[in-house]
Amino acid sequence: LDTPEVDSFVKAAIFATLTNVNFDPERFVEYITEADDYVELVRGKLARAGVQGRPTAAQLPWFDLQGNPMDFSLRRAMRGQPINADSLEQLGQQVSLLHRREVMGEANSTLLGLHELLTYGLKGVAAYAHHAEMLGKVDASLDDAFEEVLAFLASEASASPDAVLDMCMRLGEVNFKVMALLDNAHTSRFGHPTPTQVRITPVKGKAILISGHDMHDLADLLRQTEGSGINVYTHGEMLPGHGYPELHKYKHLAGNYGGAWYRQKKDFAEFPGAILMTTNCIMDPSPAYSDRIFTTGEVGVSASKHLPGTPGAKDFSAVIKRAQELPGFTHEPEPKMVTVGFGHEATLGAAAAVLDAIKAGELSHIFLIGGCDAPEPSRRYYTDVVKGLPQDTLVLPLG
């Protein structure tokens, strides 16, 4: 069936369940009820297409209380109860990780771990595919792969650790294709990144801070604030945006403010302007800035105002108005700079210099580092790895 609206929803809804994306219970009530509506829509389309019946749902022990997801109906499961955050939380406990761990027992702990590995892999891949779709790039064959994984997890084959591991590897192959799609989505829209100096100290004036991953939101914000006298600063994983020519061209893209995502409560509290959070990584806002943070896309927290809309059609006037009401930066310290923009085109352009350094014995190791630290000292893995590398090492960070 050709169901692009369902494919789009599947990616967005899976993405919303990823760590640090959405903490708003009411948004999940919407996702879950909408999912149930889409199930009925697809069943109706199948019937009209002449497909009689459907595959027999496997009897899987870890779905003992609600039955196989292939047979699930939200309205039937609620048994007349009101559908709200509290009732859905109670229902969710019947298929939770803790329940499945208890049912499957220690003997099947490896199988359960593989189920979770596949599920979390799907969340990550769906996130990248969703980002690509927001930039106008969709591959229907990749959407089919996501739904194949979901169907697999509800099939008898998911009882075999070998089969689950094979599906994990299959999803890994899909991820390479999704990353290529996302790369093309960014470079076709904003140009190939080029080495660019970025100021990391503020300049005087009204200010908006934008964080997350959605470069199209940064582009829309820059366009809507052009000529307003408001400076725009990136935060966290939005930092690479400065390397894209079509974003760097805006003179009021003033720099980058703050540090890693997990320092946002301190950074956001000290920032003297409005804050726009795109997907993802958000933490529950503190009272120090809850009245000046806005969310958009799949990201959400109950304490903030959410700005809906599609790329190119979002209205950020509420963010702009709040920034104009706030003091902004009144002091301008000495400029400090970092350099970003070493995408694959720029890196390959330096291949001759890298080869010369290897031949001269000045470069002995090349490390590709992908991942991010977290607040807990035990999760400073990536920083510790880089600090421990010898000096004759080239490090290429992915984020």
Characterise this structure.
This protein has helices spanning 4-16, 25-48, 74-78, 85-92, 97-104, 109-134, 140-153, 161-190, 215-225, 245-248, 264-270, 317-325, 344-349, 351-359, 381-387; strands at 196-199, 207-211, 231-234, 253-256, 274-277, 293-296, 305-307, 337-340, 365-369, 393-397. With 399 residues, the protein is α/β, with parallel strands linked by helices. The strands form three sheets. It has a six-stranded parallel beta sheet. A two-stranded antiparallel ribbon has the order 1-8. The longest helix is centred in the middle third of the chain and has 30 residues, at 161-190. The protein starts with a helix and ends with a strand. The model has no long low-confidence stretch (mean pLDDT 93).
Largest sheet: 6 strands, parallel
Count of extended strands: 10
Question: Segments where pLDDT lies below 50 for 5+ residues?
Answer: none
The 3D shape can be described as: globular
Derived from helix and strand composition plus strand pairing, the structural class reads: alpha/beta
> What is the helix fraction of residues, given as a range?
40-55%
Q: How many alpha or pi helices?
A: 15
The secondary-structure element order is HHHHHHHHEEHEHEHEEEHEHHEHE
- The spatial strand order of the largest sheet comes to 4-3-2-5-6-7
End-to-end CA span: 37 Å
